[in-house]
Amino acid sequence: MKIRIDKMLSNSGFGSRKQIKTDARKGFIEVNGAIEKDSSRIIDTNADTVKYNGEIVKYTPFIYLMMNKPSGVVSATEDNYDKTVIDLLQDEEKFYKPFPVGRLDKDSEGLLLITNDGKLAHDLLSPRKHVDKTYYVEVAEEVTDADIKAFEDGVVLKEDNYKTLSAKLEIIESGYPSTCLVTIKEGKFHQVKRMFEALNNEVTYLKRISMGPLKLDESLKTGQYRHLTEDEVELLKKTT
Ligand code: URA
Question: Is residue 164 in contact with ligand 1, taking CB distance under 6 Å?
């Protein structure tokens, strides 16, 4: 694979491309035994040996995909009964063994990050990081200002009595049904559905529209996906 040195090293976790540029100028990088000060040089990962600070860099490319998950497929890598989001990928992406970051329910749609970057996935899902997830939600009953307050205070879920962290509820239209936006900082199982259930309402449609700084590309039809841009990857890494 042909790739710029800075991209190869930053994808491998050696820092930002800016940092790598500085490191190259300082003589930290060698290509086939010779110091390389130009971090924009393109190398061939199959033919060239790159060393960073004296150590050979073994390159495993990371891939980062954004999918507009359709309803009816599960957010898993394998499933005995249902089609998975990984089944929707081409072989050239499956090759890198990506997995979905977190879960959207089988009947939920919207933004799903799929990657093989375990560290990024772990950081984005870490309860301590409180990465915002925003959902467009349709519910059967009216939503009220009291619901906004309840979300803000944290909702006690049925069954396990777990009290959610403060969440944001923005009403788009209140009626029968109602539409709204919900932003939560955690990812408990069926969380948004259960939050409305606790307030005696019922989610009838749920679509994730953002995760941290990453926004669903609305040009993606359900079931479609695309690679993240470098800027999107950088932004995501910065949030964690
Ligand atoms: N909350 C839910 O209830 N379902 C999802 O798929 C995501 C968040």
Answer: no
Q: Is the shortest distance between the CB of 193 and ligand 1 below 6 Å?
A: yes
Q: What is the pLDDT of residues 3-34, one digit of tens each?
A: 999 988 987 778 888 999 999 999 999 999 99
Question: Which pTM was predicted?
Answer: 0.82
Q: Are residues 182 and 235 in the same domain?
A: no
Residue with tokens 């989001």: 85
Ligand 1 pocket member 29 (CB < 6 A): no
Strand partners, 164: none
Q: Could you tell me which residues come within 8 angstroms of residue 120 by beta carbon, excluding any fewer than 6 positions away?
A: 62, 64, 101, 236, 237, 240
pLDDT value of position 13 = 74
C-beta of 105 in contact with ligand 1 (< 6 A): yes
Number of domains into which the chain is organized: 3
Distance 74 CA to ligand 1 centre (A): 12
State how far the alpha carbon of 107 is from the alpha carbons of 75, 167, 169, 209, in Å: 10, 22, 21, 15
Query: The tokens of 79 are what?
Result: 């499933």
Closest to 60 measured CA to CA, from 111, 130, 12, 124: 12
| Token digits of residue 134 | 């925003």
CA distance 94 to 86: 7
Task: Please list the ranges in the chain whose pLDDT falls under 70.
Answer: none
- Residue 231 CA to ligand 1 centre (angstroms): 27
Residues spanned by the domain of 113: 64-127+214-239
Residues 68 and 52 in one domain: no
Active site residues: 105
